[in-house]
Amino acid sequence: MPPIPKPPLASRSPRGWPALTIACLLCLPGCARYDGAGDPLNLPEEAREQVRQEAANDFSCPQVSTAPAVRRVREHDWEDGLFSEYLVHAEGCGRQGNYRVSCREGGLCAVAE
Q1: Per residue in 76-110, pLDDT tens?
Q2: 5, part of any domain
């Protein structure tokens, strides 16, 4: 007896398809690239400027250059609300240093002591 052909995919029973479709749609946003647009805590340039000013004072040097800020964490601090923490490397007049900067909602950034 010849094998019975399977019906086309569209006519098969869709028992597991709705759940699989929903699971795939829920996972897609997690795979998207995050560029920080619209995030009130995405403040790398503000962090760099804060470090440039601090390093110029620490090094007694007006010509300080800073590397791009690296965002380490975005956390919820129960007392102070949301913040982001950045690491920034600075160099100038033969000296160099690494600085940690916390930026709060509203653009307020401060170098950690």
Answers
A1: 555 667 788 999 999 999 999 999 998 887 778 89
A2: no
For residue 91, give the amino acid letter.
E
Write phi, then psi, for 49 (nearest 5 degrees): -65, -40
Contacts of 45 (CB under 8 A, 6+ apart): 69
Q: How far apart are CA 101 and CA 113, in angstroms?
A: 9
The tokens describing 88, both together, are: 């920034």
The residues that bridge with 10 in the sheet, in sequence order, are: none
Q: Tell me if 1 is assigned to some domain.
A: no
Domain range for residue 87?
A: 44-111
3-state secondary structure of 7: coil
The model's pTM: 0.61
* Number of domains, the chain: 1
